[in-house]
Amino acid sequence: MSEPCRCFNEGGRRKTRREPRTKKLLLNRLKRIEGQLHGLVRMLEEDAYCNDILIQSAAVSAAIRAFNKELLDEHIRGCVAGDIKNGRDEIFDELSETLRMLIR
């Protein structure tokens, strides 16, 4: 996903307009994660073995981390780079806080 995101303000909120291809790839990742979560629920409902549930849960966590990496890369290359070029220095605090949340 090398296309930069397009950040803008609308109604006092920051938004991002993504290339259709990039948006589709991100949505597909989330839909796979959604399916994995439904699988976890089903496993618990059907009294699956604890270890099997834990392994599936670890797979969901890994999928979410992979999604976050893709989105963070897009954000840094597009939104953050654009904000730096435009002199929006508060992006550093925003990015720092986001990274703190992601790595805890």
Characteristics of this structure?
104 residues, mainly alpha, 72% helix
Write up this protein.
The protein is mostly helical and 104 residues long. It has a domain at 6-33 and 65-103. It has three helices and two strands; from the N terminus they run E-E-H-H-H. It has helices spanning 20-45, 50-85, 91-103, and strands spanning 6-10, 13-17. A hairpin with a 2-residue loop joins strand 1 (6-10) and strand 2. The longest helix has 36 residues, at 50-85. The protein starts with 5 loop residues before the first strand and ends with a helix. This is Metal-sensing transcriptional repressor. It holds the Pfam family Trns_repr_metal. It comes from Candidatus Faeciplasma avium.
